[in-house]
Amino acid sequence: MTVKIAPSILSADIMNLERDVRAADQAGADVFHIDMMDGNFVPNMSFSPSVVEGMRRVTDKPLDIHMMMENPDAYVKPVIDAGANTVLIHAESTQHIYRSIELVKSLGAKAGVVINPGTPLETVKELFPVIDRILVMTVNPGFGGQKFIPGMTKKIQRLDQLRQTAADDNFDIEVDGGINDETIVQCAKAGADIFVAGSYLFNGQEGLKDRIDGLRSMAFDAER
C-alpha cells in the first residue's frame, strides 16, 4: 500500500498560513487536508474556496477538501474551480450522497465519502464501486486537537476487509482525527492509506520534516 501524510491546515497558524503551507510542502507533505465548516453541520467555522485558491498558488501538492457542511453540493464547483483535487462529503450531510459523488466526478475531481464515528459502514457500502476514497473520522468532527477514539481501529479494519473482498472496490482509506506517532501505527496495521495529522505536526517541538518523515516511516513499518 501507499502511505500518504496529509497535514491538516486547521492546526496551522492562521496568521502565517502561507508560511506553514510552504514549510509543510518542503518537509515532504503528500497531500494537504483543508476543512470547510459552516457552523451548522458542525459547531465550528473554517476555510472557504478562496483559501483553496490561495493554497493552489503556493503548492502543487494535491488539495483534499473535507466538507463539513449542510448543502455541500453548492460548494462543489467553487472548490474544484479553485484547485481542489479531491472533494470529501459527509454521508450524514445530505440525503442524496450518490448524486453528490456524481457531481464531483462530473467536474473532474476525485470524490470521497466521509463517515462519522457513529455511522455504520453499511450506510455507504453501495458507494464503494464509484468512490475514490473513504475518510473514516476517528474523532467527532468539528475541532482539531481531539483524542483518537480507540474503537475506530476495528472499523478501519472491517472497511479494509470489505475492500479486499470486492474486485471493483478500489478506493483509498483515509483517517482523520488524533493521528500521532502512536495512533498512526494502529491505523496503518488496520489498513489505512492516507493519514491526516494536524496538531501533532504543527504544534510539535521537532521540525515538520522530522515529524512527517517519522509518521511515514511508522506507517510503512506497521503495514509490513
Automatic annotation (TrEMBL):
Binds 1 divalent metal cation per subunit. One of its GO terms (molecular function) is D-ribulose-phosphate 3-epimerase activity. One of its GO terms (cellular component) is cytoplasm. It catalyses: D-ribulose 5-phosphate = D-xylulose 5-phosphate. Keywords: Carbohydrate metabolism, Cobalt, Isomerase, Manganese, Metal-binding, Zinc. Pathway: Carbohydrate degradation. GO terms for biological process: pentose catabolic process; pentose-phosphate shunt. InterPro entries: Aldolase_TIM, Ribul_P_3_epim, Ribul_P_3_epim-like, RibuloseP-bd_barrel. Belongs to the ribulose-phosphate 3-epimerase family. This is Ribulose-phosphate 3-epimerase. It comes from Companilactobacillus kimchiensis.
